[in-house]
Design goal:
By secondary structure, the chain is of the alpha+beta class. It has helices spanning 78-98, 127-142, 210-216, 222-233, 249-264, 266-269, 339-347, 385-390, 441-444; strands at 3-5, 15-17, 27-43, 46-47, 51-63, 68-73, 114-117, 147-165, 168-188, 191-196, 206-207, 241-247, 299-301, 324-328, 331-332, 358-359, 368-369, 374-376, 394-406, 412-424, 427-432, 436-440, 448-451, 458-467, 472-480, 483-491. The strands form six sheets. Strands 3, 4, 5, 6, 7, 8, 9, 10 and 11 form a nine-stranded mixed beta sheet that branches.
Length: 495
C-alpha cells in the first residue's frame, strides 16, 4: 500500500495511505477535502457567539469499463479508504450492469500535478479587529432613526482539496472564501423594509483576503444601508405595467443563476432533477442553433477568474477548467455538463461539448453538474450606466435581489428586489419599494437591449445554490454588467 504526504489533514507529517486497486477496477480517483470555517456576527449591538468548525474526509470514485461509482468516508486509515473503494466498485458494477454508458468510453482524468491557491493580496485582520469592524457598522445602522434590527456578518472558509488518480497527483487546490454582509430593517406605522449590502443571502462573495472586505464596500456602508431602509418606508409602491427594466449586477446575478445557469445544466436536461428541483425547458437538440437571447447576450463559463467565488484549476472529476462560451450573440452554444454527463449525452445520441463543472459541496457528496462561475460579458459596444438611463423614457432601475420564484422547467419566473427607482424621460426620479418583474426565460433574454460596459460590471456570488439528491449546497460566482431590457412586465407589492 503506497502513501503520500498531505499537509493539513493531521499536520505537516500526515500520511495518506492509497488503497490497492482491485483487479476488477479499471482505475480510481481519490478526492480529499479538509475545510475550516468561522462565522462572526454582531446583531443589534450584541456580539453573537462565534461559530466555526472543521470538516474532513475523502470521496473514492471507482471506474470499470462502462461504469462509475462513489463512496465517501471520514476514516482516512488504510482500512477506511480500502473499504470505501470496495463500496464504490460495487456501485460502479451496478451502473455497468444497468447499461447507462453502453457504447461510450468513460474518460479518466489525467495526472496533471496542478497546484492552485486563492489570491490573497492581504492577510485578514485578527478576529478582534474584524469584530470591531462589524460593531462599528452595526452601531452606524442602529443610530439611524426607525431602524429596529441590524446585523453585520462575516463568514470565512478555508479549504484544502486534493485529487489523485491512484497515487498520481491530479491537483491540489487551496481556497479562501470571504462572505461579508450588512443588513438593516426599518419599521414605522406597521410597515417594515429591509436593505442589505448585497442581498439578504450574501450576494457579495469572493476568494481572497482582506481585499475582499474592502471591495465589498462594507466599511462605512452602515449609514447608507440604514438610511435606504428608512427611505423605502416612505416610498410609494413600484408602479405596475409594461416598461423598460434596468437591472443592476446584484439582481442580474439572480437572473443569470435561475434562468440561464440551472436550465443549461446537462444532468438536469437529461432528467436527473425532475423529481426534486425540476427539469429544463432546454432540450439537447437546441445547442448550436437556438436563439436564447438578443445579439447583445454573451455568456461565459469562466472558472479562471482568480477572485471569483467558484474559480478553480480542475473540477472535482479532475477535468482541467477553461473558459468557454455558452451563449454567443444570443445563440446557445454548449451546456453546463461535466465529463460523465457528456458521456451520457453521447450514449443518447447527442455529441455535446461540455465544460469542467462537475463539482461537489464536500467530501461526502459525488460531483454533479453545477454552474460554477457563470458570467454575462460586457457589451463590445456597451454603454455606461448614465448612458443606459438616458436612453429610457419610462422604466425602473432595480437593485439587490430579495425574492424569487421559477417553475420546474426553469422557464416562467417572477423576481423581486429590495430597491427600485423610476426612470422618467431619461432621468432617475423617485425611489419605489417592493419592485418586482416577471417573464419567461425562453423569451426574456431576447428583450435584452443593452449590456453595459466594463465600468458597470460587478463580481458577485452566492454560497447557497441547492441541487441534487442527496442535497448539495454549493458556492457559485456571477459577474455581470448592468443590463437594460425592453417591454418587461413590472409590478409592485400590491399587484
Amino acid at each position: 500500500m503506497q502513501s503520500a504526504s498531505f499537509p493539513g489533514v493531521d499536520g505537516d507529517a500526515a500520511v495518506l495511505p492509497f488503497p490497492k486497486r482491485p483487479p476488477a477496477c479499471r482505475d480510481y480517483v481519490l478526492r480529499l477535502v479538509d475545510r475550516h470555517w468561522t462565522a462572526l456576527a454582531v446583531r443589534r449591538g450584541v456580539v453573537q457567539p462565534a461559530a466555526g468548525g472543521r470538516d474532513r474526509g475523502a470521496m473514492l470514485t471507482a471506474y470499470t469499463a462502462n461504469g462509475v461509482g462513489w463512496a465517501a468516508t471520514s476514516d482516512l486509515s488504510a482500512h477506511g479508504l480500502a473499504q470505501a473503494l470496495d463500496q464504490a466498485l460495487r456501485a460502479a458494477n451496478a451502473v455497468e450492469a444497468g447499461g447507462l454508458f453502453d457504447g461510450v468510453e468513460l474518460a479518466l482524468p489525467q495526472a496533471l500535478g496542478v497546484r492552485r491557491a486563492s489570491p490573497h493580496e492581504r492577510p485578514l485582520p485578527s478576529r478582534g479587529a474584524l469584530l470591531d469592524m462589524l460593531r462599528a457598522e452595526d452601531a452606524a445602522m442602529r443610530a439611524v432613526e426607525h431602524v429596529v434590527d441590524s446585523q453585520a456578518t462575516l463568514r470565512l472558509i478555508d479549504s484544502d482539496e486534493t485529487l489523485w488518480r491512484g497515487d498520481a497527483l491530479i491537483a491540489r487546490q487551496r481556497f479562501a472564501w470571504v462572505e461579508p454582509n450588512l443588513q438593516a430593517t426599518a419599521a414605522d406605522g406597521g410597515a417594515a423594509q429591509t436593505r442589505s449590502l448585497a442581498g439578504q443571502y450574501n450576494g457579495f462573495c469572493q476568494q481572497g483576503g482582506a481585499e475582499v472586505i474592502e471591495r465589498s464596500g462594507l466599511v462605512g456602508a452602515g449609514v447608507r444601508i440604514a438610511t435606504e431602509a428608512v427611505e423605502l418606508l416612505g416610498a410609494p409602491d413600484c408602479p405596475s405595467g409594461t416598461m423598460d427594466l434596468l437591472l443592476a449586477p446584484d439582481q442580474m446575478m439572480l437572473q443569470i443563476h435561475e434562468s440561464i445557469g440551472h436550465p443549461l445544466e446537462l444532468d438536469r436536461i437529461l432528467g436527473d432533477e425532475r423529481n426534486f428541483a425540476g427539469g429544463s425547458f432546454v432540450t439537447p437538440d437546441m445547442f448550436g442553433s437556438y436563439r436564447y437571447g438578443s445579439e447583445a447576450l454573451d455568456v461565459t463559463f469562466d472558472p479562471t477568474r482568480p477572485e471569483q467565488y467558484a474559480s478553480y484549476a480542475v473540477d472535482d472529476e479532475g477535468m482541467r477548467a477553461e473558459r468557454a462560451w455558452l451563449i454567443r450573440g444570443g445563440v446557445l452554444q454548449r451546456p453546463l455538463g461535466g465529463a460523465l454527463s457528456a458521456a451520457r449525452a453521447r450514449a443518447a445520441g447527442f455529441a455535446l461539448a461540455g465544460v469542467a463543472n462537475a463539482r461537489a459541496s464536500g467530501w461526502h457528496r459525488p460531483p454533479i453538474d453545477r454552474m460554477a462561475n457563470l458570467n454575462v460579458e460586457p457589451g463590445p459596444d456597451g454603454q455606461t450606466l448614465d448612458a443606459m438611463i438616458a436612453s429610457v423614457e419610462r422604466g425602473v432601475l432595480m437593485r439587490t435581489n430579495v425574492s424569487w420564484s421559477i417553475d420546474d422547467t426553469r422557464d416562467k419566473f417572477q423576481f423581486g428586489c429590495e430597491w427600485g427607482r423610476l426612470i422618467e424621460g431619461g432621468r432617475l426620479t423617485r425611489v419605489v419599494r417592493n419592485p418586482n418583474y416577471r417573464g419567461r426565460s425562453a423569451t426574456f433574454w431576447r428583450s435584452l437591449a443593452m449590456a453595459g460596459d466594463r465600468s458597470t460590471v460587478d463580481v458577485m456570488g452566492t454560497p447557497f445554490c441547492g441541487k441534487g439528491e442527496p442535497g448539495q449546497v454549493i458556492r457559485v460566482g456571477h459577474a455581470s454588467p448592468a443590463c437594460l431590457f425592453k417591454g418587461v412586465d413590472v409590478f409592485g407589492g400590491a399587484a
